[in-house]
Design a protein that fits this description.
464 residues; binds nicotinamide-adenine-dinucleotide
Length: 464
């Protein structure tokens, strides 16, 4: 069940008659319709009336309207204005460019720009690798999307994807000091996307692909990795895979099982599920069953998509077929990256003893986490309002920090696994429990630990 959250936060400016009970009447009205007040500020106070700003969290836009109506229904109360705090935060965009050098006088100008800059250009022309030393390439990542799979909202196009990409850039900066810039492309043609990214690559030390729909995302990433001399990382694939592998390592510590003995069901074989399967297989799980909208993936299903064919050949060692519910019987772990409400507590009850349930479909998971908890030993979701939030913010800032510091030209599975272990290790043995298998995204130790692990892996794989 959704709970009021800051995603639907409003500030309602109301005028109310001055009385000893005014504050109580207003806050009670909000509470009665389920709003959660986070701030109450008196803006004006007159002998006969007060003006206050009531800030509160709602469940949805409709719920926000119910809260406003409840306030307006109070005797003598008038609503002057309602501000949606989320829209306010996006006014004019969320990131900007700052100059790192002072431009105070002719001397500064002559060195930062012409004529001095000419010598820097010549140095780079003579030795192109100097671009990594003498330009923003050293610390800059392109966040590239075609807007075809924006969050869980679908194909909204490049302009509507921009608020997400801006947010991503802000997170890169906040958590790892990486200068990321949104590049929203007005094309969904694979060849055009590849060519465009190739053309803009000289500016960047890495490419973060984002919200590009499967299966196109697989070819775009693979081809760009071949063409470019900078790392290319599709966060919806590998960021998720890193976090899931990290969370699974700690979940299995909680239940005292070893991955080599576990039967794992991965429900969803799109961008996230495929990458999770590929990374998990590096760690030698007992068995993996992949399930998609057509049921358990197996070689005789006749899939023609190369990704599904690879998954069919490399999972399902017992060659079983059937539905998701069939796959869950006897499984130790289910990882859902698919669609809402696909199974219930009764299916979790058919899993092995102490099952682990990761239900990551956003915003509504494969199973209501409270239902899953009836039989599961560990439950994780992608949501911030439940324990164990599996959130890619744990991975991508530190991954790119490490890649940029190492001046890496490629990204390898060894780096992804090192990042996963670093995230898992941030949770100390004495902190670890069924409701705390991954660190908080605000734990400042995470990005630096991930960066260090990636730097070390880059060094040992000679990719720098
Ligand atoms: N950190 C996180 O929490 C996190 C990270 C990545 C993705 N996700 C979520 O995972 C979901 C999938 O993301 P994606 O980018 O891989 O999407 P995608 O569209 O690439 O893949 C979706 C997959 O789900 C399968 N699927 C759809 N309906 C199904 C059903 N009824 N039964 C079984 N399988 C079904 C599809 O066949 C496909 O394989 C989304 O809800 C996304 O928000 C969460």
């Amino acid at each position: 069940m959704p709970v009021p959250g800051p995603g639907y936060s409003i500030t309602v400016r109301v005028e109310a008659p001055s009385s000893a009970s005014a504050a109580g009447d207003l806050t009670s009205a909000v509470g009665r319709v389920g709003g959660v007040i986070t701030a109450f500020d008196v803006v004006e106070s007159h002998p006969d009336r007060v003006v206050v700003d009531i800030t509160c969290n709602a469940v949805s836009a409709n719920h926000a309207r119910d809260i406003t109506d409840a306030l307006e229904a109070l005797p003598g109360v008038a609503v002057r204005k309602v501000s949606d705090r989320t829209f306010l935060m996006h006014l004019g965009g969320k990131i900007e460019v700052h100059a790192k050098v002072a431009l105070r006088n002719r001397d500064d100008l002559s060195r930062a720009y012409t004529p001095g800059v000419a010598r820097i250009c010549q140095a780079i022309a003579e030795n192109p690798d100097d671009a990594r030393r003498l330009t923003i390439k050293r610390n800059t990542v392109a966040v590239v999307t075609d807007g075809s799979a924006v969050l869980g909202l679908g194909n909204l196009g490049p302009a509507a994807a921009l608020p997400v990409m801006e947010g991503k850039a802000a997170l890169f900066k906040k958590f790892a000091g990486v200068d990321a810039w949104p590049v929203c492309l007005d094309t969904q043609d694979t060849e055009e996307i590849i060519r465009t990214v190739e053309l803009i690559a000289p500016v960047y030390g890495g490419i973060n692909l984002e919200d590009i729909a499967a299966p196109r995302c697989f070819e775009i990433e693979a081809r760009l990795r071949e063409k470019l001399d900078i790392p290319v990382f599709h966060d919806d694939q590998h960021g998720t895979a890193i976090c899931v592998v990290a969370a699974l390592r700690n979940a299995l510590r909680v239940v005292g099982k070893s991955l080599a003995d576990c039967r794992i069901v991965v429900c969803g074989v799109g961008a996230a599920g495929s990458a999770i399967i590929r990374l998990l297989l590096q760690r030698g799980p007992g068995d993996v069953l992949a399930v998609d909208v057509d049921g358990i993936v197996h070689p005789d299903r006749g899939d023609t998509d190369p990704n599904l064919r690879w998954v069919a050949e490399n999972t399902n060692s017992r060659r079983v077929s059937g539905s998701l519910h069939d796959a869950l019987v006897g499984a130790d772990v289910v990882i859902g990256v698919s669609a809402p409400n696909l199974f219930g507590a009764e299916q979790v009850a058919t899993m092995a003893v102490d099952p682990v349930v990761f239900a990551l479909a956003n915003p509504d998971p494969e199973i209501d986490p409270l239902e899953a908890q009836k039989h599961a030993a560990v439950v994780a979701t992608g949501r911030s309002d439940y324990p164990n939030q599996i959130n890619n913010v744990l991975a991508f800032p530190g991954v790119f920090r490490g890649l940029l510091d190492a001046q890496a030209r490629t990204i390898t599975d060894a780096m992804l696994l090192a990042a996963a272990d670093a995230i898992a290790d941030v949770v100390d043995g004495d902190q670890l429990n069924a409701s705390f298998i991954v660190p908080s995204v605000f734990d400042t130790a995470v990005a630096s630990a991930v960066a260090e692990a990636v730097r070390r892996a880059a060094g040992t794989s000679h990719s720098g």
